[in-house]
Each structure stands twice: as structure tokens, then as C-alpha cells.
Amino acid sequence: MFLFSTLQVGAENVFKNEVKRLFPDWHAAFARPGFVSFKTGGNVSADTLQTASVLARTSAESFGKIDAENNESLADALWKLIAGRHLFINRVHCFRRDPFPPGEKGYEPGLTAGLIERHRIIVQSCPQPKLFGKNAADAAQPAVPGETILDVLEIDAGQFIAGVHRITDHSPQQDYYAGGVVPLQMPAGTVSRAWLKFEEGLRWSGFNIGADSVCIDIGSSPGGCSQVLLSRGAKVFGIDPGEMHETVLQQANFTHVRRRVREVKRSLFSAADYVFADLNVAPNYTLDVIEEITALAGSRLKGAIFTLKLIHWNLVEEIPQYIERLQQCVKKNDSGAVRMKQLAFNRQEIMAAVRMDCTK
Ligand SMILES: C[S@@+](CC[C@H](N)C(=O)[O-])C[C@H]1O[C@@H](n2cnc3c(N)ncnc32)[C@H](O)[C@@H]1O
Q1: What's the CATH number for 2-180?
Q2: 198 contacts 228 by C-beta, under 8 angstroms
Q3: How confident is the model at residue 360 (pLDDT cuts 50, 70, 90)?
Q4: Distance between CA atoms of residues 111 and 94, nearest Å
Q5: What pLDDT digit, counting tens, does each position of 22-75 carry?
Q6: Does the C-beta of 224 come closer than 6 Å to ligand 1?
Q7: Residue 280 CB–ligand 1 contact under 6 Å
Q8: Where does the chain hold its CATH 3.40.50.150 domain(s)?
Q9: What strands, in cross-sheet order, belong to the sheet with 303-309?
Q10: Which atom of ligand 1 is nearest to the CA of 242?
């Protein structure tokens, strides 16, 4: 069988290497920028790839390519294919491969008016609409566990690939949304694009930040990440030798510690519930910082979310070592405590989330 994944443009070769390491008997097949398909050794669920890979943004079990001149003929071909396979579809995800890396030439992943219209036409022409889940007519609504999703990916104009993935209780949160992209719009007054990646990263982590949380934001300038935390009512200490945006400085819950992280008094870290970091440095430097903070005696830290900058793409090969390093900071038998993923709004970097064990 074949599986396909979408991913960030430019990461195709390192993704193929990642899959080779994870599943040595799979072979890369048809690929385009931002899209790779694989012939697998046997019957494998899309979840298997999606959960194991750091780079796959979304994955599906492939039914093959469809050429269609318009949305109506695409819908017709899709529902015939589904009937032929005796499948029950609960929701449809329409998406496209990225034309550019996120943040480049003004591009951000997610639904477009054209994709929403395509979704409407496919959903309306479904011969078995009774099987659709709640709010399935709304392209932006998330799926729910138990649902089977029909994935309709536009590879090039008039060329599509169809597939399916299932939502389980263990599915990563991105699988619930079309193309693995949580629909986000930067609010007016947002001071940096970092808002997008940390809003997405925080939702992906499942960490519950609220008015009683104390957060440390390392590499906080100009302040998009701090805005994500302040909007949830958290008390935020931003550490950065650079200037914070006026909008952020004016917030009562925000304190700027205008220093490099290594010059900051350690007592500040022992008061933190969550640490965020977004440093434009090599991954091992960020990991040193996170390790030092988690090792602090008396730390009440519940979690850390941070970016690891892939200064060159081959650093992807070091990800298993990064995970191993972080695993030392948390309870040994908590295998899900360290997670890494290249999220849709990350640029050439990955997002890491570490859930701490407060009782160790
Ligand atoms: C990508 S920017 C951060 C964007 C920011 N997270 C936001 O939400 O707007 C990286 C920042 O890391 C800061 N930085 C680099 N090395 C640092 C260090 N050792 N300690 C503190 N900040 C550092 C830089 O000054 C820069 O502002």
C-alpha cells in the first residue's frame, strides 16, 4: 500500500531519510515540493507515520491520483472511488501542498476561499451525507475521535491525490484539521509572526496556561510569544537583550528582563510554571538552557515549549539525540513526556514540548 504526507517545502530529502530510519523497508515514491508518498511494506495506518515522524504535517493512506478539470468532476470521481471501496466517510479535508515555506512571500498554510468552496461542493454531492459528523459542512471545524476522514490534496492545478486517515483518541491534534493546519489568524496588534507558531505550539502541547501561571519567555523580543501567554492571563517574564515592543511592555502582567539568559538570576526560574524559548542559536545551546533550568533545585516547572532552529536541514538526523537528552530531564518511564514536531507555522525549525515530572 501507499501512504502520503505533506510537509514543509525544502524538507523532502531529510523527510525521506527520516522515514528510511523509522521504516527501513518503505520506499519513497511520487514526490513534489511539500509532498512525498511511500510504498510501505504492508498495511500501515496513516497514524503510524504521523505519530513517528517529526516532519510529516499530515499523512493519509493513498487511493491514488485523480485528474479533474473542476470541483464537480473531482467530487464525482471521489464518491465513486469511495463507493467502490465500501468506505464510510465522516468528514472531508481539502488542502494543498505548500507553494513556499511558511512565512515566505507572505504565504501561511491553511484554508483558502478556493479550498472552502471545493470542500462545499464535495460535501454537498456526497451520496451518504447521513454519515457525516457534527459540523462536517464547515471546512474549518475539527474532526472528533472515531471519524474517518477523506483527504483531498491538490498536488498541482487539476491534479489531486485522495486518501484516508482515521481519528483515534491518540491522534495528534493536527490530524483533526485539514492538511494538519490549525486554523489561526493573527489578531490585530500582534507584534511578530512568532505568535502563530507559539499559539499553534501551545495548543499542540496540551499545556493549560491560565491566570495562575507564571511563564518565562526566553528570546522574547519583540513579543509575539509573550502575547500568546498574556492573552491567557499569565504572568510573563520576557528575557532578551533586545527591545520588546511597546504594546507588550505596557501590559501589567509583563516584566522585561533585559539580559542574556545566562546572566539572569537562577531564582527567577525556580518560580516558573512554564518555560518558553525561541532563541536564534544552535539547537544544543537551547537544549543546554532548558536542561539547566529543569535541573534547578526547587523548580516547580510543569513544562517547556521551545523551538530548535535547524540551521541546516541535516540537523534532523540529530533529533533522536535531542529527544534522548531531554528524556533525562523528565521521569524515566514517561515516554510521552518529550515531543517534537515541525508544526505548520514553524519555519526551518521544530517545536519541542517537554512535560515535567513535578514529583521527581
Ligand atoms: C526569533 S527571535 C524571538 C522572537 C520572539 N520569540 C517573539 O515572540 O517575538 C530570537 C531572539 O532571541 C534572542 N536571543 C538570542 N540569544 C539569546 C540569549 N542568550 N539570551 C536571551 N535572548 C537571546 C535575540 O535577541 C532575539 O530577540
Answers
A1: 3.30.2130.30
A2: yes
A3: very low
A4: 8
A5: 999 999 999 999 999 999 988 899 999 999 999 999 999 999 999 999 999 999
A6: yes
A7: yes
A8: 194-355
A9: 254-257, 235-239, 214-218, 274-277, 303-309, 349-355, 338-341
A10: 25
Contacts of 15 (CB under 8 A, 6+ apart): 5, 7, 36, 53, 55, 56, 316
Cβ atoms of 75 and 127 closer than 8 Å: no
User: What is the separation of C-alpha 69 from the centre of its chain, rounded to a whole number of angstroms?
Assistant: 32
pTM of this prediction exceeds 0.85 = yes
Residues 196, 199: Cα–Cα separation, whole Å: 5
Instruction: DSSP letter for 351, please.
Output: E
| 258: its cell numbers | 533585559
Cβ of 184 less than 6 Å from ligand 1:
no
Region 316-338 average pLDDT: 87
DSSP string, 218-279: ES-SS-HHHHHHHTTT-EEEEE-SSPPPHHHHT-TTEEEE-S-GGGS-HHHHHT-SEEEE--
CATH 3.30.2130.30 range(s) for the chain read: 2-180
Residue of 215, 225, 280 to mutate, ligand 1, most atoms within 8 A of C-beta? 280
Fold of 194-355: Rossmann fold (3.40.50)
Give the three-class secondary structure for 132.
Answer: coil
Is the minimum distance from the CB of 239 to ligand 1 under 6 angstroms?
yes
Signed CA dihedral, 227, 245, 237, 291: sign only: positive
